[in-house]
Amino acid sequence: MRLWQELVGEKELVGSERDQLLVAVNNATYNRANDEFFGTTPQCGGVIELKNGKSIGIIGCGEGFEVQRNDMEESDHMIAYYVDAIGFRSLFQQLLTETDH
User: What's the domain of life for this entry (predicted)?
Assistant: First the structure.
């Protein structure tokens, strides 16, 4: 699992950092489907690679966040949802700026 943020860089997440992001994604409030992707350059994001070869993407743009997933059984194509962004941006910044101990 890796995260990246504009002007901050990229980081591979493991252990408790990975767990924090997974909890945030699993607890996200999916407030509406996004049939048309943002269409603007993302400022931050993350990719969760699943064991079955599929993935879940998290894209931050402006004040919003979008979860993009192709792991749903009922669909072979990408499904995208806007999510309640409270906490996502600060979690990204916290995880990307923490140093390994």
Answer: Bacteria
